[in-house]
Specification:
The protein contains four helices and five strands. The chain has helices at residues 60-63, 74-78, 82-94, 102-133, and strands spanning 20-26, 29-40, 47-56, 58-59, 70-71.
Length: 143
């Protein structure tokens, strides 16, 4: 029986299908690489691959100066949109400590309302696309 390959989804860096993942350790950090396989080179017989470096799971150094824990692109491969949701949750949790004046608070409220409106619009478009194509994701991966 042939071995089933894991479906890694699409690369957050270049958007191409991921053939497999690699990792390497540097110091005490593990870094991730998405590999795209294009067959064998007819001249050399070697694998024709392109590698996209996705970085570590978390970025400690840049996180020291603000309340958000920045995550590497590998998180979106493990769970689609994980970083976006984690960042939004962290922003919401940081609001009580932000010491906002009235003007800045109203400006942020307007931006969050704008985000909400865009998300509702996206949800409607995805629902329509799903109904038309039968695709459960509502995404056009061929684009």
């Amino acid at each position: 029986m042939p071995r089933r390959r894991k479906d890694w989804g699409f690369c957050p860096r270049c958007g191409k299908k991921i053939s497999w993942m690699e990792s390497y350790t540097k110091g005490d950090r593990v870094y991730y690489v998405a590999v795209h396989y294009y067959g064998k080179d007819p001249e050399t017989g070697k694998k024709d691959v392109k590698k996209c470096h996705l970085g570590p799971e978390e970025y400690d150094y840049v996180t020291k100066t603000h309340p958000l824990v920045l995550q590497g692109a590998i998180e979106d491969i493990k769970e689609p949109n994980a970083r976006m949701l984690a960042y939004l949750d962290a922003l919401i949790e940081a609001l009580p400590y932000a010491k906002l004046d009235s003007e800045k608070a109203l400006m942020l409220a307007a931006r969050f309302k704008g985000i909400g409106a865009k998300l509702e619009q996206y949800a409607e478009e995805a629902k329509r696309a799903t109904a038309e194509s039968g695709d459960s994701t509502g995404l056009d991966r061929a684009a």
